[in-house]
Structure formats: structure tokens, C-alpha cells
Amino acid sequence: MNTVIIRSALFVPATRPERIPKALASGTDVVIVDLEDAVQESLKAEARANLDGFLADNPQARLLVRINAPGHTGQAADIALCQRHAGVIGVLLPKVESAEQVAQVALCGKPVWPIIESAQGLLALPAIARAAGVERLSFGGLDLGLDLGLASGSAAAERILDQARYSILLHTRTAALAPALDSVFPAIADHAGLARTAQDASDMGFGGLLCIHPSQVAIVHHALMPAAEELAWARRVLAAGANGDGVFVVDGQMVDAPVLGRARRLLERAGTKA
Questions:
Q1: What does 164-217 look like in DSSP terms, one character per residue?
Q2: What is the DSSP letter of 11?
Q3: What is the pLDDT of residues 28-44, one digit of tens each?
């Protein structure tokens, strides 16, 4: 399993190649150059050529690419582009609905991040998560909500989407994948709402979020950082457990193996050690 911590993955449209260096310098953990939803149909070939040129001119750059969905006439060309550039370190496959669709993309030799965006994709998730080449999962809340007929943004819709999140987390764990990423938060100006969403995602067990604007990156990172008191607690727990006792007490609370695991995870999230 890839244990690299990814808190933020920032989309940038391939129609705006001048934004790629800015995205790479934004502080995000990874940049995703988008050939799919952010690119209108008449500009698909131009967007692909833009990305091809950027990668040729900047061989040191490392980024991911969201290719077009299965069945799109441009997908084969997208996959070929990803295969020939070392700078492409992963491929996001949108609207995936079968393990076979993943296998087709995995032939390019890059890690695949399937994005679940439909009811059919959810039903096929057990096989998708275990398909060869899959590194981590994500989902598209807006597209999935549309497919399921949800009232976007409503409390009822979120209750249903939380069940999709549960499925993503469950199959991430059982397939031993890298931590999943939660869906985009579309209200760019709602910083408080983004912070709450990022905290909820972290509390659920997601590794981070997909981001659609550079201003979201720092907010997501701050929300995902454990509080100082949590880190202090984690260090006390690990220090107390250093003598090898199976069960002991810290701050009046029993500590056993699961609690030790939580303490280690908190420190990992903060990028620090005991």
C-alpha cells in the first residue's frame, strides 16, 4: 500500500496550462490536470496538446491526470499521453463502473485512482477497489447525487452521500489501498464550510479532499492537522507504551493496542514522530 499522505489534490484545467506551475507551487500535496469535466468537448484535443507540451517542456514536474471517462472517444489518446510521460505519476479515472474499465487504464503502467460517480459504480465498488493498479479511491458527490436523484446540498442528500463515503472507506480498508479522498467542496468562498467538511472527512477516516481552487488548500491542511493537545496526548501515550506493557493507563484512561494505533496515526497525520 502507498503510505504517502495526501491531504489535498488540486484540480487545474488543461485548457489553462499557465496555471499548472501556479498549482504546483500552491502548497497542495498533488496537482491533478483535468482533461475531463473542466474541458468543454470542442477543446479536448487542444487541452491534451497543452498538457503534452507542458510535460515535454517541464520534465521535472510531477502531477496526476484526470482522463476522460470510459466510452469517450478521447480516452485512448489520454491514456497514451499518460503512458509516455514520466511526469504523470497517476491517473484519475472518472465515472468508473467496472474493474474492466480500470484494467484498461492500468495498462499504461501508472497508479489508478477510480472516481465513483454513479449507482452502478457503487455496486461494482468491491471489484473496482481490488482491480490491479488501483492505488486509492475517491468519489464525485455532485455526479453521484445527480445519478441518484438527490437534492444537492440538502441534509437528506448528505445522509445518502455519507453511505457512499462509508462504502469507499470500507473497500479502501479491505483492499489495503492508500487513504481515500473525499469529494470536492464546490462553494469556493465558504471557507468555514470547507473547514467543517475537511474536519468531518478526517474524522470519518478519509486522508484528504479533492480541491478545485488554490485558496482551499491551506484551509484543508489546517483542518486536517491534529490539535496541539491531541499531539501532546499521542506523545504521552507512545512514551508510556515504550516499555512494552500490553495495557496501561494515561491521563486516567486505559490504553491498549487500538489506542496506541490512534496515537501513532495522529502523529503520522501531523508529519511528526513521538
A1: HHHHHHHHHHHTTPPPPEEPP---TT-HHHHHHHHHHHHHHT--EEEESSTHHH
A2: E
A3: 999 999 999 999 999 99
